[in-house]
Amino acid sequence: MTPRVLPWLVLALAASHAAQAAPGDSARREIAGLIGALDGSACRFQRNGSWHDAAEARAHLQRKYDYLLRKDQVDTAEQFIERAASQSSMSGKPYRIACPGQPEQTAAVWFTARLKALRQRTP
User: Fold this and answer.
1) Could you tell me the residue range of the domain that residue 97 belongs to?
2) How many CA atoms lie within 13 A of 9 on its CB side?
3) Which of 68, 85, 92, 95 could share a disulfide with 73, CB 3.0–4.6 Å?
């Protein structure tokens, strides 16, 4: 590597790291709201073929979110849904949610609807 290339490489690496900033306050509130919406519900959460109550699901999703935060891999609520709340990172199987009086659906659809509702309530 020539001496002229090194400064550009350092700048490029610094810029790529800066582009992956942690979620802002708004995104953190939305993600907390999504996790809270599940935790405060009577819904069940299916992960890798096993059903879990809302409190167990909340704990699982919080662990995944915390991991993504440590790895600087989540900046938005949409990324949280995509990377933590939609499918198992181990098996790749989609998560499912079943709520009383509603048809069972994928967690991605359920969380996306909750996010839309959160945003409509927040001015």
Assistant:
1) 24-121
2) 6
3) 68
The structure tokens listed for 71 are 């790895």
Dist. CA 92–CA 28, nearest whole Å: 25
Within-domain flag for 8: no
Q: What is the DSSP letter of 21?
A: P
Q: Which of these, 33, 25, 5, lies nearest to 118 by C-alpha position? A: 33
pLDDT band at 78 (very low <50, low <70, confident <90, very high): very high
Give the separation between CA 51 and CA 34, rounded to whole angstroms.
Answer: 19
Note whether 75 and 27 are within 8 A (CB).
yes
The number of domains in the chain is 1
- Mean pLDDT over each residue of the chain, to the nearest integer: 88
